[in-house]
Design a protein that fits this description.
The chain is α+β, with helices and mostly antiparallel strands and 415 residues long. It contains 13 helices and 5 strands. The chain has a 5-stranded mixed beta sheet, covered by helices on one side. α11 packs parallel to α12. The mean pLDDT is 83.
Length: 415
Amino acid sequence: MRSLLRRVLLDTRYTLVGFPTAVIGFVLMIAGFSAGVGTVVVWVGVPLLAGTLMVARGFADAERGWLSDVLDRPPVRPRYKPAPADAGRFRRLVNPLTSGQSWLDLLHGVINFPIAIVSFVLTVVAWAVPVAALTYPVYGLVTSRIPGNVELPELLGLGDGYLVNSAFYLVLGLAFALVAPVLVRGSALLRASLGRALLTGVAELQERISDLTEGRAAAVSAEANALRKLERDIHDGPQQRLVSLAMELSRAQRQLARDPEAASATIKSAIFATRETLDELRALSRGIAPPILSDRGLAPALAALAGRATLPVDLDVQVVERFPAAIENALYFVCAESLTNVAKHSRATVCTIQLQRLGDALMLTIGDDGVGGANVAKGHGLAGLADRLRAVDGELTVQSPDGGPTLIVAEVPCG
């Protein structure tokens, strides 16, 4: 009830306060535009038009601030085209004329006027009818005794008199009180939809393009870093072990004829080194999407990761359906890298993994009871995971105070 009342009050403020603002803006913009166009042939109209567009920008900024309350989203301000750094005074003066968003601001100021009138009237009606009807028993004591006064119930053939009128208006007031929040909300959205289309639509599109560009760059960077890390790990680990294994086998071959016992010991050592190399290769392969991920999906792949972990893992998978390959790969890598970090750095005794779907979002949560200190800042291992998630419009959240525990949450849209 409290949230509903707050919403109705915010919408009412938007339509009532916005009406006189729309009237003033309409008058200034129409007058400025008309004067500017009429005198543009003698160049006087150029600065007039520029000034009118700046006025329109001011009213548009105020409208964007109100839109954030009505639409429950942070205000998005478009990027107005700046004047060149070496521009002269006149070029800077007329710079608003070169910005497409400035003309959209002017168009909004003109079109918003009739819509603001409709929204204002609907909001006033939504408040006035319930208030007037529900308070009739107070002032009806006077109006019902006025000679010749005909009330609405009598016109509708329902009867006359104070009691009949009071009952009718109370029912009418309660009915309008139930409808009023919907009517006020509709009035606010009628006007806010125009503001969003003309004042923030381009800005939201530009912001989306920027996010996609940054996400693509982050994905490319994450893949490049992963490949470099894999190459370095293979060079420093399995490759060196294989070189040593080849030398051991060559030595065993030379010893086989003259000292079979020594050759047998060398072969045993080579077999042990082979097992260590295989274990290290398996560990490195966790950074590469396994066949089980593409064949059976994310849930079985996470189960395989948990089964190979070096510490106890409590796995809770609440979704079994398949998702786009990019989403499954991103979450798999987050889980694999997080488990590796837990094993290497956390000194944890237990780890928990939970996969669940909340609405249109798929959420992977990884926690441990280790020493904490994990960081998603650049230069840390988790930064690459954050970049990988950004490529699928996801977000990585890390809570890891010194002393622990650590909680890593990867959230990606899947709707």
